[in-house]
Amino acid sequence: MNSKSEHIHPVFDQLLTREDKEKLLKQKAKVLWFTGLSGSGKSTIAKGLEKTLHEKGFLVMVLDGDNVRAGINNNLGFSDEDRKENIRRIAEVSKLFLQCGVVTICSFVSPTAEIRKMAGEIIGKEDFVEIYVNASLEECEKRDVKGLYAKARKGEIKDFTGISAPFEAPINPDLEIVTEKKTVEESVNEVVNFVLPKIKF
Ligand code: ADP
Asked: Does the CB atom of residue 42 touch ligand 1 within 6 A?
């Protein structure tokens, strides 16, 4: 407990539990943490996964750069310190969704083992499912979905993961999807099949 939190009066023991929420929703909550290079397929798979799970009756929330960096983290940049703070807040927000029984998909590059470890520790090992969305740098650069690699090569974006900042591939992810050898549908189906037994009530 830090000096700021010691004066907060805890109400958690008076509130309904995560189990109460999971019972209501008839699902088990997990945080599905996608990591991978920009353009590897995280958002594409997250979108397909959300839709499929929703159709099957699951309540799902996707956190990604668009809804997080535009809002709660709009004061953060891409320095080491800010990247770490970005992930810390995302992990804390995910934990709140988890406590509400929601299947939460996080779609962020999250490039280093250190920041993924931090996210896992905040969320809790048993609820943190690490999914490595793997495509080679060459393939991601060829796709260049947002035109960011071209800009990074020209030096217009500094500290760009894969070009001028490191990406450390996860050593022992719970699931790895090699997207350059699959269709989007195949990738989504693979993740759906892997995730379903973990979130079924
Ligand atoms: P990220 O969110 O990781 O930055 P995106 O999902 O925005 O990446 O972009 C990935 C691109 O790769 C999309 O244009 C998508 O259609 C394409 N793609 C090709 N094959 C696959 C696959 N098997 N899985 C996911 N995306 C794929």
From this structure: yes
CB 49 within 8 A of CB 191: yes
Q: Is 48 in the pocket of ligand 1 (CB under 6 A)?
A: no
Q: What is the pLDDT of residues 29-65, one digit of tens each?
A: 999 999 999 999 999 999 999 999 999 999 999 999 8
Give me the mean pLDDT over the 2-23 stretch: 80
- Name the token pair of 102: 């929601």
User: Which is the closest atom of ligand 1 to the Cα of 186?
Assistant: 23
Residue 5 designated active-site:
no
Q: Which of 42, 68, 57 is nearest to 103 (CA)?
A: 57
Can you give the pLDDT at residue 65?
Answer: 83
Domain limits of the chain? 17-199
pTM of the model: 0.93
Q: Which of 110, 136, 164, 187 is catalytic?
A: 110
Residue found under tokens 């929420």: 21
Position 14 confidence tier, pLDDT thresholds 50, 70, 90: confident
Q: Name which residue sits closest to atom 5 of ligand 1, judged by CA.
A: 41
Confidence of residue 3 (pLDDT cuts 50, 70, 90): low
Residue with tokens 């993924």: 116
Ligand 1 pocket check for 29: Cβ under 6 Å:
no
Please give the CATH architecture assigned to the domain spanning 17-199: 3-Layer(aba) Sandwich (3.40)
